[in-house]
Amino acid sequence: MTTSTAKQILILGAAGFIGSHLCEHILAHTDWQIIGFDLNTANIAHLLDNPRLRFQQGNIFSDQAWIESAVAAADVVLPLVAIANPALYVQDPLRVFELDFEANLQIIRWCVKYQKRVIIPSTSEVYGMCQDAAFDEESSNLVVGPINKSRWIYSCCKQMLDRVVTAYGDRDGLHYTIFRPFNFMGPRLDNLNSEKEGTSRAFTQFVGNVMRNKPIQLVDGGLQQRCYVYIDDAIEALVSIIANKDGVAHNKIFNIGNPDNNISMRDLALQIIDEMKRIPSLSAAAQNAQLVTVAGSDYFGAGYQDVNARVPSITQAQTHLNWQPKTCIRAGIQKTLAFYFSDSEERV
Fold first, then answer.
1. Is the dihedral angle over the CA atoms 230, 233, 237, 239 positive or is it negative?
2. In angstroms, rounded to a whole number, what is the distance separating the alpha carbons of residues 256 and 269?
């Protein structure tokens, strides 16, 4: 168990994928208090009776007064509310800008006003089309495409927040940590019942298509490679960042990913299908699963542009947080499928 002077943690987006897992871990393994905020309670309904969680249901745009007061009351602020869906980057870039940049900028300014430590979720996408073999937080160039590729608005919003936060740190003494997720995976990643293509992240889109006996659509053949990290491993890193023992995370940037889990989207689909074949209720659908190639412009829209490789250097997290991801890609797939399809179901 993590022991510390009691902390009051404000988690905006507490019922999201990352937020719900973080709340679970904090309540189970620390003595910290949580102030939670989100649009709904679906992923944290089982936690609401815990006396160390005070939850407010609301909207980040319309509940500004409540959020400001919560920032003032907290020790540490984690603004986890964001749109992280490539389809929306193309279809509704202004909505992405308004939430991911403008709404979060206001939260950062309140952290400056009340001198609160803020932990900012950046993204691996800030590196864009960087050509480095492994992306380094301190030295890698951040390279994005032309303006007519609206896909990059998400990356630019996140990169600008990174720069604003560090500038406030330099000018106003803001205490911050920035973390960059690299393809987190695990239970509660997305709703499998969302049938529209592109509304889920690749992992859950693949699983959902197999369930519905629809072909898995591989954008541009699925040759793009990504480094998946299991959510439990990622949460361990985040908890170390929050704890900040001896100031190890003070004003630093951390990649949170697993370079050993580098896999192409095509191979990810094949491994998911292989594991689904071993679940009796899904075996027949998985046996008949098909892979088809679709152009990125057809799948996401004309404003889409892709990245072939996205591999993190995790030296900073290993050195300062004493963190090492443990879960291999196959085990991560198995654990995630077990959540969605009940780990009580015997595998064949």
1. positive
2. 23
